[in-house]
Predict the structure.
Amino acid sequence: MSLLSIVGAVFVVLLLVYLIYALLNAEDF
């Protein structure tokens, strides 16, 4: 697994967590 693959995987996970967090707090907007 290359460094680019690891960085890409971490970015995707962080993006998913951010989207889920935004959806869970959507009632505030």
